[in-house]
Amino acid sequence: MVERETSKEEKDTGTYKIKGTLVEYGDGTIQKTKMFDILDVPLDDYSDLEFSLEEVRRMRMHVMKMRTGVQAMAPILCVGSVKCVFRHRCPIVDRNIRTPDGEIDFRNQNVKSFPILRQCPLERDFLDFKRNQYIDEYEIDVDSPTEMGMINKLAELDLYDYRTTLVLANGDDKGEGVDLLKKQVTGTSITGEKMMRLEAHPAFELKERIQKMRENILEAMVGTRRERYKQAAALKQQDTDDPSTSVADLRERIAKLEHETAIDAEFTDIAEEKK
Fold first, then answer.
1. Per residue in 118-129, pLDDT tens?
2. Of the residues 68, 133, 142, 163, which has the fewest C-beta atoms closer than 10 A?
3. Residue 237 lies in a domain
4. At what angle do helices 121-137 and 145-170 cross, to 10 degrees?
5. What tens digit of pLDDT does each residue of 147-173 get?
6. C-alpha neighbours within 13 Å on the C-beta side of residue 48
């Protein structure tokens, strides 16, 4: 193995091959690197693959997000004001820019204001806010993977619930859902006309499913008032059944009774002396 100094320009323009803890440059020289340490020991042979420095950085960032939790990848990627399904509620959109007919002009927005192909900063902030809320409310041990996993899932469900609420508030791509209903084609009449019926909008049904999932997680982490009451009642019964607790209470009562008896005796003696 040949040791060599690597310039910044060479790092940026060179290609990298995965060989355990080694990297092979175009001229055949090999050098130790920590660039692929995050992959640990690969199960397959990746020595035939070549990456640019930017590709390696993207891989590292993606793996770090996966290790943090899939919830860290929950925020949607920004696709701009034209294609975003939630563009009607996006605060980045300038509502003063209008079309000739008075509608919001989503096509002539300032493109530089949108984090294209990056996580939506609003959803990411919402996710962090909800996660911190749950951590404070339930006094979560942030070093516990199990507890943090449940908290991250709760925050993720809150984000999905928020999205379904936006769909119901503004309507889906067909303009349906504001009244919580959706038109469903059931068939075709003899004249060729579509036969329709109204049914609950999928977004509304999804909100119910999300709520049930939240309740299951909260019960699992003893987060509901009902579960807290059960736990408190069980602890109280345990204290009552504890013999040592019963003996201590009995001794305290006896001591209190003896003290009251002694006081009564002193008052009796004083009254007899006065007579």
1. 999 999 999 999
2. 142
3. no
4. 130
5. 888 899 999 999 999 999 999 888 887
6. 2
